[in-house]
Design a protein that fits this description.
It is built from five helices and seven strands. By secondary structure, the protein is an alpha+beta fold.
């Protein structure tokens, strides 16, 4: 027998749908047990393993918000995005955690991008609750910015996350100037 997750027609866009909860739970070894726990306590965060269903790229909150803005304003959008303890968690395609750092290094943008933490196989992350608690304690800032809403959400790969990092870094380099200025690397002159 399937017990539905709490669902109201007035659910804010930042709450996880039952399909999104099923997708998140699929990362767990025993997804039905996690779904049962969530049905009983939908306002409690959970810890989920990374690497099979999704990877997570964690960046400082201001830089992460710039990345998400770039993804939605100029790019393809994002997959699920959350905040937790002053960081933005971008859910990405499996393999992104292994590939992204080398892409940043190869593109020589590593110094312009602040402390990226890439969580992949063998790592786990805290995910926000399925629903926000009304009047609850939001000190840790653990909440969904873009909540999972399907059983198979689109997840950006390392190339899209790299693009968002570069765009956000350009905003940092040119905060008040010409954001469309061409940037040339002159450190390798002949």
């Amino acid at each position: 027998m399937s017990i539905p997750l709490p669902h109201t027609s007035a659910r804010p866009a930042t709450d996880v749908t039952p399909e999104g909860a099923a997708w998140l739970a699929s990362a767990e070894t025993y997804p039905r047990g996690l779904l049962t726990d969530w049905r009983a306590r939908p306002t409690v965060p959970a810890v989920l393993p990374c690497g099979t269903v999704f990877d997570v790229v964690s960046v400082p909150i201001v830089f992460g918000r710039r990345m998400v803005d770039r993804l939605w304003q100029e790019g393809p959008g994002s997959g699920p995005v959350a905040t937790c303890r002053g960081r933005v968690l971008l859910f990405a395609a499996p393999g992104t955690a292994q590939r992204l750092p080398s892409l940043l290094e190869w593109e020589e943008w590593g110094a312009a991008v602040p402390s990226l933490l890439c969580h992949g196989p063998g790592d786990a992350v805290t995910v926000p609750p399925l629903a926000r608690e009304t009047g609850g304690d939001q000190r840790l800032g653990t909440r969904w910015l873009v909540a999972p809403d399907t059983r198979s959400p689109w997840l950006p790969g390392p190339d899209v996350v790299l693009w968002a990092c570069v765009r956000a870094a350009r905003l940092s380099i040119f905060p008040d100037g010409d954001r469309d200025a061409k940037v040339y690397d002159v450190s390798r002159r002949r």
